[in-house]
């Protein structure tokens, strides 16, 4: 959860495409969403075979940045 939160603080957004190796990504996002409200935006893409897939990018509101930093520092 720390790694995802750090990405949110530094980049302002995070998606499952950023962490393909993390098997519990959606669970961590759900836990973070209970602590600080994230803004989900659905995106679509195409794989190498032309098939369409969708994924969600979760954005951190600018007014929640200080709150997110405090949560991150509390995790250490």
Brief account:
The chain has 76 residues and is of the alpha+beta class. The protein has helices spanning 2-11, 25-35, 65-75, and strands at residues 13-15, 38-46, 52-60. 42% of the residues lie in helices and 28% in strands.
What are the defining features of this structure?
single chain, 76 residues, alpha+beta, three-stranded antiparallel sheet, 3 helices, 3 strands
The average pLDDT is 94
Number of helices: 3
Low-confidence stretches: none
Strand content bin: 25-35%
User: How many structural units, i.e. domains?
Assistant: 1
- Strand and helix order: HEHEEH
Largest sheet: 3 strands, antiparallel
Shape: elongated
Q: What distance lies between the first and last C-alpha atoms, to the nearest angstrom?
A: 11 Å
Report the helical percentage.
Answer: 40-55%
What is the alpha-carbon Rg in Å?
13 Å
- Tell me how many strands there are: 3
Numbering strands along the chain, what is their spatial order in the largest sheet? 1-3-2
Provide the structure class. Answer: alpha+beta
Can you walk me through this structure?
This protein is α+β, with helices and mostly antiparallel strands. It has one domain. The protein contains 3 helices and 3 strands. It has a 3-stranded antiparallel sheet. Strand 2 and strand 3 (52-60) form a beta hairpin. It is elongated. The mean pLDDT is 94.
């Amino acid at each position: 959860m720390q790694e995802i939160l750090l990405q949110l603080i530094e980049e302002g957004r995070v998606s499952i495409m950023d962490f393909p190796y993390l098997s519990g990504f959606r669970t961590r996002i759900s836990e973070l969403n209970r602590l600080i409200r994230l803004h989900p935006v659905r995106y679509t893409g195409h794989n190498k075979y032309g098939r369409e897939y969708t994924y969600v990018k979760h954005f951190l509101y600018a007014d929640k940045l200080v709150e997110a930093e405090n949560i991150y520092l509390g995790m250490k």
